[in-house]
Amino acid sequence: MNGTPHEIRLLNPDGMLLANLGPSGHVARAAEGERFPLCALEFELAGRPSASIPVNVFVLGELEGLPPEHEAVRWIVSRPAALAAIRALRRDCYVVDDVVRDDSGSIVGARALARV
Predict the structure, then answer these.
(1) Which domain range does residue 75 map to?
(2) What secondary structure, in 3-state letters, does the chain show?
């Protein structure tokens, strides 16, 4: 099942279309997480005084938007949602992998799925 708001095209190794998965209506998302201050990163730019910017640790929030896990259903989701799924101990979420891009860099299909 497609747990993204985008069409997903699955391709064979030669780039031929295997399946065209439209959005399912369920959009998996990682809820807004928490930020914890870690340190400050000092840097210099040519001809300017040195500056610093805070560096935070960001912890993803909970997985949202999917029905409960079901043995016979697998979901293709975004990477942040897949990371949140791991935190929720779900084993049914995958991401696109080995993507094919057009000349402008847009993803036109995926030749594999992956677990994160």
Answers:
(1) 8-31+61-114
(2) CECCCCCEEEECCCCCEEEEECCCCCCCEECCCEEEEEEEEEECCCCCCCEEEEEEEEECCCEECCCCCCCCCCEECCHHHHHHHHHCCCCCEEEEEEEEECCCCCEEEEEEEECC
Please report whether residue 90 resides in a domain.
Answer: yes
CA distance 108 to 17: 10
- In a domain, residue 37? The reply is no
The reported pTM is: 0.83
Lookup: tokens for 41: 């990163």
- So what's the pLDDT on residue 47? 82
Measured CA to CA, the distance from residue 92 to residue 81 in angstroms comes to 11
Name the amino acid, one letter, at 61. Answer: G
pLDDT at 37: 96
- pLDDT tops 90 at residue 48: no
